[in-house]
Amino acid sequence: MTVAVDDNEGGNATTDHLGERMSRVARRLQEEHGDVEATLQAIAAAAVGTVPNAEDCGITYVIGRKKVEPRAWTSDLPKGVDSLQERLEQGPCLDAVWEEEVVRVDDVASDERWPEFAREASDLGVGSMMCFQLFVVGDQLGALNLYARTPGAFDDDSQDIALIFASHAAVALAGAEHESNLRAGLSNRDVIGQAKGILMERHRITADQAFGVLTRVSQEMNRKLVDIARELTDTGAVPRADRRRD
């Protein structure tokens, strides 16, 4: 299958095999090295360059069925549509993440599934939309939303290509979040180790005893252990608990 796409790197329209194009996109996303926000922005930009007739892209997180949070966008249009869907509590992105996984709107102005949304989104300049579920984690869901300013911009080929792109994007995003979590875990471990070292040297206690001090203060203050450790390393004092020791 070959498709005509915009090659952002070369600036000219080229005809590539979809598999080759997806490989280039995957390599580009991997270059973000665990930076979740940069990966989200890269996905949005790459989607516009990959899916035929897509003029804008937004990546949206939907939390608890009500909060619609734009996380990446190629213009203000996706942000405006996200705000509209949160206010009205209806729209194709919400349906995509909670019900259908893929929603295509060929003519926003005349679509009868979400009357209020259709009218106001059309006024914002949206002609066509496609929305794809990216992930589901607990009560947090992610969607990839594609926009065109003219009705009927997306056909079946556009949808098929966007589906493949969304699957690659979901893998790239999961990898970035995993790497980010690993880095955060290592950083937290270092901070806790430093805090334990301070307590051990100051009070002549063992590593286990020092960890016990941090754990007890964390429980008593209902704060994360890493936050207690970070404050100790920053200030030299256990938060509100200088007197505590094993």
Automatic annotation (TrEMBL):
<dbReference type="InterPro" id="IPR029016">
    <property type="entry name" value="GAF-like_dom_sf"/>
</dbReference>
<dbReference type="InterPro" id="IPR003018">
    <property type="entry name" value="GAF"/>
</dbReference>
<dbReference type="GO" id="GO:0016301">
    <property type="term" value="F:kinase activity"/>
</dbReference>
<keyword id="KW-0808">Transferase</keyword>
<dbReference type="GO" id="GO:0003723">
    <property type="term" value="F:RNA binding"/>
</dbReference>
<keyword id="KW-0805">Transcription regulation</keyword>
<dbReference type="InterPro" id="IPR005561">
    <property type="entry name" value="ANTAR"/>
</dbReference>
<feature type="domain" description="ANTAR">
    <location>
        <begin position="172"/>
        <end position="233"/>
    </location>
</feature>
<dbReference type="InterPro" id="IPR012074">
    <property type="entry name" value="GAF_ANTAR"/>
</dbReference>
<dbReference type="Pfam" id="PF03861">
    <property type="entry name" value="ANTAR"/>
</dbReference>
<keyword id="KW-0418">Kinase</keyword>
<keyword id="KW-0804">Transcription</keyword>
<dbReference type="InterPro" id="IPR011006">
    <property type="entry name" value="CheY-like_superfamily"/>
</dbReference>
<protein>
    <submittedName>
        <fullName>Response regulator receiver and ANTAR, GAF and CheY domains</fullName>
    </submittedName>
</protein>
<dbReference type="InterPro" id="IPR036388">
    <property type="entry name" value="WH-like_DNA-bd_sf"/>
</dbReference>
<dbReference type="Pfam" id="PF13185">
    <property type="entry name" value="GAF_2"/>
</dbReference>
